[in-house]
């Protein structure tokens, strides 16, 4: 079969020369290397510079290749090989799936593929901590529940345990925890693990929550966080700390507050605060970064206030199964389940595990852009919370609607209203992409907003679109904007088409679509109606159809 050869080697593409017959050991190691990264494809019979030179005669029969690879890897790696004709030479394309966990050669060699500083790939040894990190990202092990080597009960700080109890009261956590003594509390929250000899040893969760700072430095050297304030490229605040997590959250919020001014909005008899950054979203974003970071990787959690955004980043990419396309709807998949569960029971983060919703709500309810995760990579999660000026009129409308409902607006509804503010007109399909659900769910959201009087629907077919309602535009004093977005009436469309024909002699369907900003089906119906009323006369057929003035024009 004929295939196009990739232009160069990448993280997921490997070229291997076969002029001198590539040894089976090197082939197996190259395939393992790909599997332990993102998977991909190995092109056998292609030089490093991308020049196809063909397969060695002993590799021309590919039927037994998959079996050989499975027999020499553990667990067995299932690859697919196919012959590809490139010009006058034949090469092999070997597809490699991403390993769910880790794969080794039967000789016990663990390798992974990575990109060097210049963007070219290389194959390197997979070190023990990297294997553990990969396993935790796939949910195969919970590092946060494991005892920490060398740790003892003396590494736990009684003052931090008291801070934990106060946090349960402050955040409205599980009050049953307040009735437990220290040993029972440690066991209930997996702060310690019982050993076979009956002794208790602190877990990673225990050290991170109630460990002494000196012990954390020694026993968990990857734990570090920073708060930075950058104003017009000048550094106004830049400090790194290694506090236990509850103390860390208090310290970060205390230092952030002076840089988070707020104004007040009068809504009826109530005053509604409008901060630069919603504190609920701030707490959730920072807590998520500290909880879900990869504690096998060196690097600090950064909380950085820039001129136009608050940026929160943490080492370790998204866990397996979580992508930017399903962030809002996927089931919670914490990298450190024991730590995440403990923080939920204390009340620091959402008990439902839907903290991302809280972050989105914290921005959208003020009329600000949605949180931006687009800078996230395989090495780190990067979240940007825009700090643009709030839309006070929009905030007032949200507050009034939520008071009318006696409940918060669903997050999908907030996303829909924000999208309509930005795009002016929206279809169910366009909203489905933003809320990461199907078109049926998106339509249900838009119809609910229509029934609430916040949105107006236009059209009754699949081309149905939505705009903000006249009452919303009137409430913000922009009646003209509503008229613009409502668009032209059918009568106006007819007059525009007839005027065009008078000026230019004829018109085609594509020209009607462009002139009146209609879909193909809408333009077709408009032309058919004018033809039936004899105000236009049709000439030509199908794609060649055109229309001239009729006897009744």
UniProtKB/TrEMBL annotation:
The keyword Hydrolase applies. Residues 9-113 form the Schlafen AlbA-2 domain. Pfam families: HATPase_c_4, SLFN_AlbA_2. InterPro entries: RecG_C_sf (IPR038475), Schlafen_AlbA_2_dom (IPR007421), Schlafen_AlbA_2_dom_sf (IPR038461), WH-like_DNA-bd_sf (IPR036388), WH_DNA-bd_sf (IPR036390). Keywords: ATP-binding, Helicase, Hydrolase, Nucleotide-binding. It comes from the Bacteria. GO terms for molecular function: helicase activity. This is ATP-dependent DNA helicase RecG. It comes from Azotobacter beijerinckii.
């Amino acid at each position: 079969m004929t295939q196009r050869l990739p232009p160069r080697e990448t993280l997921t593409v490997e070229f291997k020369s076969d002029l001198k017959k590539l040894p089976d050991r090197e082939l197996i190691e190259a395939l393992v290397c790909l599997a332990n990264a993102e998977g991909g494809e190995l092109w056998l019979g292609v030089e490093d510079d991308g020049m196809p030179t063909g397969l060695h005669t002993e590799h021309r029969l590919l039927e037994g290749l998959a079996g050989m690879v499975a027999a020499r890897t553990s667990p067995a790696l299932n690859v697919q090989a196919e012959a590809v004709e490139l010009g006058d030479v034949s090469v092999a394309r070997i597809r490699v799936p991403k390993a769910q966990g880790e794969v080794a050669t039967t000789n016990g060699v663990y390798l992974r593929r990575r990109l060097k500083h210049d963007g070219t790939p290389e194959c390197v040894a997979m070190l023990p901590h990297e294997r553990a990190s990969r396993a935790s990202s796939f949910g195969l092990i919970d590092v946060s529940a494991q005892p920490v080597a060398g740790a003892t009960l003396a590494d736990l700080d009684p003052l931090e345990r008291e801070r934990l109890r106060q946090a349960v009261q402050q955040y409205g956590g599980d009050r049953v925890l307040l009735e437990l003594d220290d040993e029972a509390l440690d066991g209930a929250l997996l702060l310690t693990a019982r050993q076979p000899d009956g002794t208790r040893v602190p877990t990673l969760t225990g050290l991170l929550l109630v460990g002494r700072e000196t012990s954390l430095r020694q026993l968990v050297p990857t734990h570090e966080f920073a708060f930075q304030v950058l104003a017009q490229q000048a550094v106004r605040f830049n400090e790194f700390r290694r506090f236990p997590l509850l103390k860390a959250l208090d310290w970060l919020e205390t230092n952030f507050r002076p840089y988070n001014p707020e104004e007040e909005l009068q809504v009826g008899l109530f005053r509604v605060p409008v901060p630069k950054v919603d504190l609920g979203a701030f707490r959730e974003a920072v807590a998520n970064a500290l909880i879900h970071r990869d504690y096998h990787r060196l690097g600090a959690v950064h909380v950085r206030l820039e001129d136009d955004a608050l940026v929160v980043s943490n080492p370790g990419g998204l866990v397996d199964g979580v992508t930017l396309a399903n962030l809002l709807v996927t089931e919670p998949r914490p990298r450190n389940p024991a730590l995440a569960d403990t923080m939920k029971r204390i009340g620091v983060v959402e008990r439902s595990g839907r903290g991302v919703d809280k972050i989105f709500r914290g921005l959208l309810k003020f009329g600000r852009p949605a949180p931006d995760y687009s800078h996230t990579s395989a090495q780190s999660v990067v979240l940007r919370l825009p700090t643009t000026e709030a839309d006070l009129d929009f905030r007032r409308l949200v507050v009034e609607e939520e008071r009318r409902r006696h409940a918060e607006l669903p997050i999908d509804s907030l996303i829909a209203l924000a999208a309509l503010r930005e795009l002016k007109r929206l279809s169910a399909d366009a909203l489905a992409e933003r809320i990461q659900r199907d078109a049926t769910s998106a339509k249900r959201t838009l119809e609910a907003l229509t029934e609430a009087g916040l949105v107006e629907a236009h059209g009754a077919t699949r081309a149905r679109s939505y705009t903000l309602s006249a009452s919303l535009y009137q409430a913000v004093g922009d009646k003209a904007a509503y008229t613009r977005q409502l668009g032209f009436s059918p009568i106006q469309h007819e007059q525009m088409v007839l005027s065009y024909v008078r000026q230019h002699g004829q018109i085609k369907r594509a020209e009607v679509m462009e002139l009146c900003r209609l879909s193909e089906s809408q333009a077709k119906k408009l032309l058919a109606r004018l033809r039936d009323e004899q105000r236009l006369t049709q000439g030509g057929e199908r794609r060649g159809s055109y229309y001239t003035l009729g006897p009744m024009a």
